[in-house]
Structure formats: C-alpha cells, structure tokens
Amino acid sequence: MRPPILLVGVAAVFFAGANAAMRVAHLGVQQGYAPDQPIHFSHKLHAGDNQIACLYCHYGARSSRHAGIPSPSVCMNCHAMMDKQTVEIERIKEAVQVERPLFEWIKVHNLPDFVQFNHSQHVVSGVACQRCHGPVETMERVEQFAPLTMGWCLECHREHAGVPNHPLRRAAMHLSGPAIAAASGLNCVSCHY
Quick count: other Cβ atoms within 10 Å of Cβ 147? Predict the structure, then answer.
C-alpha cells in the first residue's frame, strides 16, 4: 500500500523545515551575517584607509581569549585630536565624559557554548586576523567571513601543523603520538574543554 501523497508532502516539508532550523540554530554557520551596530563604525576607513592595526583597538587579542571591543577612550585617542567631528564621534565623546560604556555591540562571530576559542593563542602563533575574519580592512560593516565550523578550523590546524617553521609545528616537533595532536590543536580538548 502506498502512503497518501499528502502525507509524503507534509513529511517532506517537515524535514526540509527541520533541516533549515538546524542550520540556523548551528551557531558559526552564518557566513555573511552583518548586523546593524548601535553606532556606525567603518573598518574600511579605520583599518583600510588609515591602516590602523587590528591589535591597536582589539588589544585584548594579544593576551586574552577575547579580542574585546575597544573602550570609548581608545577611540578618543585619535578622535580627540581631529577637527572634523560627526554625530557618531560626538556620541563617543559623551560616553567618555560621563564614563559609561559606549553601547551594546552585537557580536558578529558566534561559536557554540561548547567551543573554547582563544584569540591570544592564535595571535601569538602568528595567525593573521584576516585568516578567520576575512578582509576586514575592506568592510564598511563587519560580517562573518568564514564558516567557523569544526571542519574549517581543523583544516587550518592541519595546514599549519605541517608548515616546517610555523610555531604550531615547532611546538609539536619534540613530541610524539597524542601529544603532537594536542600541541598542534588537533586534539579534541584543544577546543572542547
């Protein structure tokens, strides 16, 4: 006996919807995600045209898991000396004067809670910010460039572990077996702890 066409159609729609919901719910697989932020900030202008290094504003990336959002006072290091002021810059100046956080920024690069990512380990190992974040210096509004999936990360770790003079490879050279995997970031506990 063949199932009724309506039942097959309902099942197909259900599974297609469930698959789409699973993809949306899977944080990290949001390439192109570029939310509106509470203040317009052009990375193209700052990192591209003015060539301000990523680590000047996101200095936490050198020593912390988190790159961090620059405080308004970091913005004012440059903007306090500029003649041209915009409405956005005036909002930053006001935040500095009343000593309050600037605004609630919307996180662009989201990973699942069970993934532990450490910016400092990558920065110290010589991984360029653009490797994960893409050509930020060309972006008016930052968007998620890479898929940030486990497979994507492992591909990079394998690639760098095989580079003779790369810090990950040097760290693993005197090790053997599972210790090589841990040193090169190929062990599960490197990211899931």
Answer: 14
Q: How far is Cα 154 from Cα 23, in angstroms, rounded to an integer?
A: 20
Q: Model pTM?
A: 0.73
Contact 29, 147 (CB under 8 A): yes
User: For residue 62, which amino acid is it?
Assistant: R
Report in angstroms the alpha-carbon separations of 190 from 48, 84, 105: 33, 47, 28
Per-residue pLDDT of the chain (193 residues; tens, 9 = 90+): 555 665 555 555 555 554 444 444 455 569 999 999 988 999 999 999 999 999 999 999 999 999 999 888 899 999 999 888 899 899 888 888 888 777 788 999 999 999 999 999 899 988 999 999 999 999 999 999 999 999 999 998 888 765 555 555 555 555 555 555 555 677 888 888 7
Nearest Cα to 142, choosing from 134, 131, 150?
134
On the 0-12 / 13-18 / 19+ scale of CB atoms within 10 A, 153 is buried
Coil vs helix vs strand at 131: helix
Is residue 120 classed exposed, middle or buried when 0-12, 13-18 and 19+ CB atoms within 10 A define those classes? middle
Tokens of 121: 């380990």
CB 170 within 8 A of CB 60: no
